Amino acid sequence: MLRFIKNPQNIRLIDIGCGNGYFLDLAKSAGMNVTGSELDPQAADFVKKQLGIEVYICSAQEIHKYLYNQSFNVVTLWGVLEHISNPAIAIQSIKKIMKKEGLLCLQTPSEDGLIRKVIHFYSRVTGKLDLIPELYNYDHVQCFSRKSIKYFLVKHGFIILRMESSSYGLKPLLQRPSIKGFNFVSILKKIFVIFIYSLGLLSNHGNHLTVYARLANE
Predict the structure, then answer these.
(1) How far is residue 53's CA from residue 50's CA, in Å, rounded to a whole number?
(2) Long-range contact set of residues 43-46: C-beta below 8 Å, sequence gap at least 24
(3) Which domains does the chain carry?
(4) Residues 137, 107: contact at Cβ < 8 Å?
(5) Which of 101, 106, 170, 196 has the fewest Cβ atoms nearer than 10 Å?
(6) Integer Rg of the chain from CA
């Protein structure tokens, strides 16, 4: 992200869905003026009290109502977009709190991920969804491909700067119930997941996609 930022000390950043504030703390250490938003009151309270960072309890879809008098150079959404039922409403709300030519950074599961393609092939051949059923989380209501996320962002007034496979996702995937454990089947699944996941990263088809986009100067 820093490759797109010249002077961190002059940057106002908001992390939407900031969780326990790990990323906000890093950005603050880099000299940025940071703010967060979070739906979980306990997580928001932790960030406020332990990290000394202002956090608003609100959704991405309504963030402009809470920060209508503020504007930010950088907006980040790490693992958020896939949880939003209507991302178009969310992105329009987010645009209202962004400065002109502001930077949007997001990470989301990728439908182009090699491991997803392999699972899809297995499901088509066998008619089953039992190989790694948790690959699609129950609370994920969106899954973008490179093509669809580009179309979505450009449609809503952004210029794509860079898209890249993310290394995120392997550790949580290995903790899923159908993989976790040390019986013979679980160990085989672990080996399979690690191999396919690593191959996906090497071929730029990882399980997650990181996108950097600039708000067009409309």
Answers:
(1) 8
(2) 43/18, 43/19, 44/18, 46/20, 46/21
(3) 58-215 (3.40.50.150)
(4) no
(5) 101
(6) 19
- Taking only the tens place, the pLDDT of each residue in 156-200 is 999 999 999 887 778 877 887 878 888 888 888 889 888 988 898
Report the sign of the C-alpha dihedral through residues 43, 48, 50, 53, in that order. positive
| 11 DSSP 8-state letter | -
Full DSSP string of 21-49: SHHHHHHHHTT-EEEEE-S-HHHHHHIII
**Strand-pair category, 72-78 with 12-16:** parallel
Contacts of 177 (CB under 8 A, 6+ apart): 134
CB 83 within 8 A of CB 198: no
Write down the residue that tokens 């609100």 correspond to. Answer: 58
Question: CA-to-CA distance for 34 and 96, rounded, in angstroms?
Answer: 17
pTM for the complete prediction? 0.90
Residues of the chain with pLDDT under 70: 134, 136-138, 218
